[in-house]
Amino acid sequence: MNPNIHLPYLATVTGIRSECSDTKTFDVRIKDPKEAKLFVSRPGQFVEASVFGAGEAPFGLTTSPREPGVMTFTIRACGRVTDAFHKLAVGDEVGIKGPLGNSFLDKIDSRGKDVLVIGGGIGLPPLRSMIHYILDRRADYRDFTIIYGARTPELQMYKGELAQWAKRPDLTLLQTVDVADPGWKGYVGVVTTLFNKLKLDIPNTVVYTCGPPIMIKFAIVELVKLGLPDKQIVSTLERYMKCGVGKCGHCCIGHKYVCTEGPVFDYGEIKGLAEEAF
Amino acid sequence: MPEKKLYSLPKAKVPGLIAALLKSKHRVWGPVQGEHGDTFLNELSSAKDLCRDYVNGFLGAKRYVFPQLEEMFRFRKTGAGLTLSPPPPPQPTVVWGLRSCDMSAVLYFDSFFGRGAKSGPNWKAGDPLPDPLYVARREAAVFVSIACNTAGPKCFCVCTDSGPFLSKGYDVQLTDLGSHYLAETGTAKGEQFVAGHRQFFGAGREDDMKKRRALEVQAEKTFQEPVSFFAKAMRKLDRGAVKPAFWQKVASYCIGCGGCIYACPMCSCFDVDDVKISGTEGARVRSWDTCDFAGFTREVSGHNPRATRADRRQRWFYHKLSMDYLEKNPVIGCVGCGRCVITCPGGVDMATVVRWMRKVE
């Protein structure tokens, strides 16, 4: 993190991949090697990324790289800054502030426990950093299940990687869509309809979730009904943000700043907020 | 600062002092009178601009420490790629004649914008970070506040421990004693300021301090706005006694203009935008924003966590009055300056809402 909290690092786009009609994934590298050394992210953290002239917006980091100064994030084109990102080419310069916020690792320790990841739509990218973290240390965790819901098969993120995960014997991947197409082999319906396929060891399961507010809300309702304790339900929250460094005031939920005190919260913390988080 | 020292400043010498400051390349901010008779804190171009007969200006020292529009950095496209440059350091400045409430608001900003020394590689998630723009402006300035011998018609700083006289926090505090001011220094910076302009200041007199104490007691009797029981309102808010219907009532009087927030010396939320300067140069700027506007929390999907005006009014008062925030900051989010009382067209200002909240069953 730069000591001048408003000044981004200059960085170069090193790779761009299309995920679906309106979403792309960007690989980015901080240019100055000294500054790059300061950029070491942990799963769940985010950056404020700039296209100079268009502005700055927060994006969840989708990997936990082993090398400092490099990062990957996934962006849906849906506004001024995100549209500007979609017009970039490999080699273009962007600005990066971060890594910002806390990590999934700051919450309950899920090593030695079953892990359930519940992702919805473009909520998968921030979860992917934790998924990679666990897969890199697979022996430290017990059963590993991922439920991923999308509106349509076309709108799924990381299709190639999903296919690889589906083949892994040490990982159960359940995929569902709201509206199927003729080639779809997964489930149809919202993510909570798949909960009855799970055999949860309630005291020894940790859930990580991210997705549209409505999905997180209903997923948590069902998990609580199943008896999962608050601390074992971990969610990364999203809010409109301007600065990412605890000053602009936009992302507050009650008295908590999502940018500096989150974005990762457990359900106990979420319940204690003075405003509804979803 | 070992102990505060007393000086006297003859009023007749003030114009000379201001002129000397301007001549020595200081910027000077002070109360000025606008063409319609209103008073506000502004940068002075000459000692003649200074208005010395005023209770409080519509906009206070927030205009200096946290300007309404401020460049965060510039970006330039060159042949070799982009370069970023932070703004130049601010010039030495004297903020002259701000009132006790506004000085108290600056002290709150110190804890919010200046908070936390940690940054760089040792910074970890959750640690507060100092805002470099604020810290630079704060450190470049000497704050010469003036105590209030008489409260304004809408003032209630006596309920928020932020006036009418201050016991600490100011660099120099002036008390109007008729033909001269009593000047108390409160910090090493204030002491240096007086020492650097000693030809304008006389020796402090112990009997002036006696007069100042008597004036303070007298001033506390001049408050007209009956808002003293913040604590009861805060307790009701904290214990969940203030229900959604209460905020719907508040919202029904609110026109969502954001005036209370712009005028509030403690409101600090801002928007960030990139603006074009030329074909190859632009600036990232921040500007005052308000939680009163629907767009403050509206996400690009259309989802808005604070969709109704009642949600947004609740937010503003919660931020300022909740125990959660009191624990985060040393003070509540109000200095009793009364500006929202003067500004609000619907009459749902801090004073009124605290009064209503106290009466919640």
Kindly estimate the percentage of residues of chain B that lie in beta strands according to DSSP: 15-25%
Output the strand order for the largest sheet of chain B.
3-2-6-7-8-9-1-10
Number of strands of chain A: 15
Helical stretch tally of chain B: 13
Give the C-alpha Rg of chain A.
18 Å
* Low-pLDDT residue spans of chain B: 117-121
CATH superfamily of the largest domain in chain A, by name, is: Nucleotide-binding domain of ferredoxin-NADP reductase (FNR) module
Please trace the helix and strand order of chain A, writing H or E for each element.
Answer: EEHEEEHEEHEHEEEHEEEHEH
Number of domains of chain A: 2
Number of strands of chain B: 12
Structural class of chain A: alpha/beta
Termini separation of chain A (Å)? 29 Å
Mind describing the biggest β-sheet of chain B?
8 strands, mixed
Instruction: Please tell me the overall pLDDT of chain A.
Output: 95
Query: Largest interface by residue count?
Result: A-B, 50 and 52 residues
The strands making up the biggest β-sheet of chain A line up spatially as: 10-9-8-7-11-12-15
Indicate the CATH architecture of the largest domain in chain A: 3-Layer(aba) Sandwich
Please describe what this structure looks like.
The complex is a heterodimer of chains A (278) and B (361). With 278 residues, chain A is of the alpha/beta class. Chain A folds into two domains: 9-100, Beta Barrel (Elongation Factor Tu (Ef-tu), domain 3); 104-271, Rossmann fold (3-Layer(aba) Sandwich). Chain A is built from seven helices and 15 strands. In chain A, the strands form three sheets. Chain A has a seven-stranded mixed sheet, sandwiched between helices. The radius of gyration of chain A is 18 Å and the shape is globular. The model of chain A has no long low-confidence stretch (mean pLDDT 95). By secondary structure, chain B is of the alpha+beta class. Chain B has two domains: 6-222, no CATH class; 230-358, no CATH class. Helix content of chain B is 32%, strand content 20%. Chain B is built from 13 helices and twelve strands. In chain B, strands 3-2-6-7-8-9-1-10 form an eight-stranded mixed sheet, with helices on both faces. Chain B has a four-stranded antiparallel sheet with strand order 5-4-12-11, with no helix packed on it. In chain B, helix 7 crosses helix 13 and helix 8 (244-253) packs across helix 10. The model of chain B is unreliable at 117-121 (pLDDT under 50).
